[in-house]
Fold this sequence. Notes:
With about 70 residues, the chain is mainly β. The protein is built from no helices and five strands.
Amino acid sequence: xxxxxxxxxxxxxxxxxxxxxxxxxxxxxxxxxxxxxxxxxxxxxxxxxxxxxxxxxxxxxxxxxxxxxxxxxx
Length: 74
């Protein structure tokens, strides 16, 4: 399975993004990820979802963390 984010990254931080899940060329599903500031201070996107793929139900967690987004220590 392959997760393909549908996002053109720009200089501004976007509030949501859509991730599509593919197996080969077959689209199995999609999930909307929301902007999140994690407890470490890093920024990114997160979603938790229940998906049905090929008749089976799955619980999934998606996390994308922007590398270098954690604030510098004071």
